[in-house]
Amino acid sequence: MTKLILSERAARIGIAPNAAAKARAQALAASGRTVVELTSGEPDFDTPDWIKQAAIAALAAGETKYTAQAGTLELRNAISDKLARENGLTYPAAQIIAGNGGKHVIYNAFAATLRSGDEVIVPAPFWQSFPAMVAINDGTPVQIAGLREDGYKLTPARLEAAITPRTRWLILNSPSNPSGAVYGADELTGLAAVLRRHPHVWILLDEIYEHIRFDDGSREHWLTLAPDLADRTLIVNGGSKPFAMTGWRIGYGAGPVELIRAMTIVQSQSTSAPSSIGQAALAAALRGDQRFVRESVQAYRERRDLLLDALADIKGLRCIAPQGAFFAFVDCSALIGSTTANGRHILSDTDFVEYLLYDHGLAVVDGTSFGMPDHFRLSFVAERGALVEGARRLATAVVGLTRRNAVARGSETLFTEAV
Ligand SMILES: Cc1ncc(COP(=O)(O)O)c(C=O)c1O
Questions:
Q1: In which order are the strands placed within the sheet that holds 202-206?
Q2: Which domains does the chain have, with CATH numbers?
Q3: How much is the pLDDT for 407?
Q4: Tens digit of each residue's pLDDT (9 = 90 or more) over 186-242
Q5: Which of 103, 128, 174, 379 to mutate to test the pocket of ligand 1 (most atoms within 8 A of CB)?
Q6: Is 251 near ligand 1, meaning CB less than 6 Å away?
Q7: Ligand 1 centre from 146 Cα, in Å?
Q8: 101 ligand 1 Cβ < 6 A
């Protein structure tokens, strides 16, 4: 067989770790084991029927052709209205692009702007696709670890220290996947002050979880706090998370007109435009009754509380209550260095995650994949029963570990005494 030679860009990236975790869980389930899967990053609700009806109506009306390459005017106007109504921002249609998901919008932005070796600051813990999309577009992801005591958030001092003349973008994701952290108005103002000192740095603001929030904090938008940064901010959002439309693949970006134009050219030579039917559906969703969003957030809140209560009872795990998105990001550093009942050493979060899967039938995603070792991510987008059973398995797994013997990890010695 002729050997396949990968492009340099393709060789830089791998499959998304949550997809890999899901595949491992499914393979185990196919072998007959019961597996509780808490890896998912998408709403488990169906898209509301009235949104589906809008898609059906678009089909019936013959909206089955290529659309404008930046998206239909109907959709871009609906996005413009949404940004005005919900965020107090003014973006005409010329400053808006619809893509095949928020992910594709981010990809377009990097493809349109990064040159070889350009740096993109990716605060950790991060959604794994951020560094991958930077790398495939010839950029260099620069990871800055968020500290637990800072709520896993980027601080002005750490941002300042990371900026170099080669920095092109800072990625801000609030609410965050995987930590659930939400930046408050003061924190955003502090970051904006740093960015004002570095006018060559652009800001990619990923707000895909905008509406999935559990805190009572300020809802004031980055660009109403720092309107002077609008000429170098790209807002990214989409239908996937608020309207349970992950499979429809429609997201959007709003930013300076030259950037949107450059992204549209990239899009025009790759996918032409997103699906006409999906665009009609998202336009209807943005213009329609937002009750579904509120009700689903209430359901996530109940599941979050259930999971947090269960986690609080497990000695050795620590979790900051997520203020948004639908994940709990759990610190398992106290378990590193422990030994399983059959004598295996847990030397890392990936060992722990494997132990959870193969010994206890619980699938989660390791923190290393999010740039933050000694943690793991639990999704609470699952039925109540699965969450209760998942928490039970987690507790049993932790109790089954012996934290006694000294174990070497690299040059470190972990656990010299019983815990
Ligand atoms: C932080 C973050 N941004 C963007 C996306 C992209 O979502 P979509 O491409 O479905 O709009 C995701 C999806 O998981 C995400 O977690």
A1: 96-99, 251-254, 233-238, 202-206, 167-173, 119-124, 140-145
A2: 8-33+292-404 (3.90.1150.10), 49-287 (3.40.640.10)
A3: 54
A4: 999 999 999 999 999 999 999 999 999 999 888 999 999 999 999 999 999 999 999
A5: 103
A6: yes
A7: 20
A8: yes
